[in-house]
Amino acid sequence: MAMSPIYTIDKTFLRALVDEQVSHVADDAYGDNGMSLYDSIILTEKDDEEVDGYLEDAVRAFVTRMYDVCRMGKEDEEDTIEFYLPDFDATMQQAALGEITHYLVFSVCAALFQSRRALAVEPYSLRAKASMDRAVALLKSRKSPIQIW
Questions:
Q1: Which residues of the chain form beta strands (DSSP E)?
Q2: Please, which pLDDT band fits residue 147 given cuts at 50, 70 and 90?
């Protein structure tokens, strides 16, 4: 039977990873006068809706990129991305799902930094693109045929 991965969109987990990335950028941010910009970059509870919106945008962008082999779904009341990959190489599952997580986190961060820390937008956009490309390559990898010599 074919094995196809399912990615569960755990907003609490993803938000914690976004918070961590934003915190790293905020820790290193100083204005021209040497003043810390930490408080203007760091996320608070009032940013929850904005983060959720950027996360939804990132999920839609990923599903759109993989439209031929995936769709949005629900499993136990959580949103999921369900894949139909009949020849998927299951040894690639953990790496592929990890790259989806990286893509979502970096994409949300790049969107947040548009208004909070413009210098961080390009590096996070590039990281998001690279993670999406790796996830697509891993998900579209196929089992190697068994060779009999």
A1: 6-8, 70-75, 78-83
A2: low
Query: What is the C-alpha separation between 16 and 112, in angstroms, rounded?
Result: 14
- For residue 76, the model assigns a pLDDT of 76
Q: What are the distances in angstroms from CA 74 to CA 6, 9, 19, 31?
A: 10, 10, 25, 44
Q: Name the pTM for this structure.
A: 0.91
Q: Does the structure show a pLDDT above 60 at 132?
A: yes
Q: How far apart are CA 22 and CA 71, in angstroms?
A: 29
At a CB cut-off of 8 Å and minimum separation 6, what does 69 contact? 83, 84, 85, 139, 140
* Cβ-defined contacts of 14-22 (< 8 Å, 24+): 14/55, 14/101, 14/104, 14/105, 14/108, 15/48, 15/51, 17/101, 17/105, 18/43, 18/51, 18/105, 18/108, 18/109, 18/112, 19/43, 21/105, 21/106, 21/109, 21/124, 22/109, 22/112, 22/116
Residue 1 pLDDT level (bands cut at 50, 70, 90) = very low
